[in-house]
Design brief:
Blueprint: H1 3-21, H2 24-33, H3 40-45, E1 53-58, E2 61-62, E3 66-67, H4 74-84, E4 88-92, H5 102-111, E5 116-119, H6 125-133, E6 138-142, H7 148-160, E7 164-169, H8 172-180, E8 185-189, H9 201-206, E9 215-219, H10 225-233, E10 238-241, H11 243-246, H12 251-280
Bound molecules: ligand LARABZUK.
Ligand LARABZUK binds next to strand 10 and helix 11.
């Protein structure tokens, strides 16, 4: 059994418990009464080609590192992220390994106006309805955890509910599956789901397999601004950061620093790409 299988077994048990508490019909009624989803795709594209956007994560603990930060007030942390210029906020709602909850999502929703990602291991359409009912604008679909039929069905439902999905990949084959699906946002997570180790060079080695068009998100492994710059200089438009922000004494300033270093690196990346195009002509 891999770590991912183990996490998903727990997610499935917790899902069944919630399904016994709240029926799908009830969730659908709640969805009908919440505000429409925010436009996460535009938020992640940012105001200019040269910007690098940050998805700032509310992450208390993780399977790889154990406890990271207590985060007694997720709403206050999210408020700092928004003030620092984050384009979206990721809230881990998995309880057993990440110590998150849907209550965290509710708290953050009431504190910020930027798009919210419900970061969880989506394994059933119920979780997509649930995400929307709790105010999420974005969900995560992990290609390694789903077959093509599930991916297609879940992405279609996500879009039907006005949300977007980050379709998360780790290998060229998973990128091909995400691209064939017509994913509008493709995440490349540099965390190996078998060993849980991060290797940031994995992002640049996968770049040549990424299609043109979708927003590209580099996920995991950021310790400081230099890592955001490295992802941006390989082509990332968005970087998702958890641990480095929840451990930072000034998360607002840290988000600003990450954006600045990303923008400088992306400007260089775009200039190089333009020069290469001109030489090719
Ligand atoms: O963080 C983990 O240990 C982990 C283990 C297994 C599956 C997923 C895991 N993390 C989820 C994430 O993708 C990260 O929370 C996110 O990309 C931020 O990563 P980081 O900045 O390295 O905290």
């Amino acid at each position: 059994m891999t770590v991912l299988d183990d996490i998903i077994a727990g997610v499935r048990e917790d899902l069944h418990a919630r399904q016994r508490e709240v029926s799908l019909e009830e969730l659908k009624e709640r969805v009908a009464s919440v505000s429409p989803a925010r436009d996460a795709l535009s938020a992640l594209r940012g105001p200019a080609a040269s910007t690098v956007e940050i998805i700032a994560e509310v992450k208390r603990a993780s399977p790889s590192k154990g406890d990271l930060s207590d985060i007694p007030e997720p709403a206050a942390l999210a408020h700092e992220y928004e003030a620092g210029g984050a384009a979206a906020i990721s809230v881990l709602t998995e309880g057993r390994r990440f110590k998150g909850s849907l209550a965290d999502l509710d708290a953050v929703r009431s504190a910020v106006s930027i798009p919210l990602l419900r970061k969880d291991f989506t394994i059933d359409p119920y979780m997509i309805w649930e995400a929307r009912a709790h105010g999420a604008d974005l969900i995560l679909l992990i290609v390694a955890a789903l077959d093509d039929e599930q991916l297609r069905e879940y992405l279609e439902l996500t879009h039907r509910l006005g949300m977007n999905a980050i379709v998360e990949t780790h290998t060229p084959e998973e990128i091909r599956r995400a691209a064939d699906l017509g994913a509008k946002i493709i995440g490349v997570n540099v965390r190996n789901l078998k060993t849980l180790e991060t290797d940031n060079t994995h992002f640049s080695s996968l770049v040549e397999h990424l299609p043109e068009g979708p927003v590209i998100v580099a996920e995991s492994g950021v310790a400081g601004p230099e890592d955001v710059a490295a992802y941006a200089s390989s082509g990332a438009q968005v970087v998702l950061v958890g641990e480095a922000l929840v451990r930072n004494r000034d998360p607002r300033e840290a988000v600003g620093d990450f954006k600045n270093s990303g923008r400088k690196a992306r400007t260089g990346y775009l200039e190089t790409a333009q020069n290469e195009d001109e030489h090719a002509e």
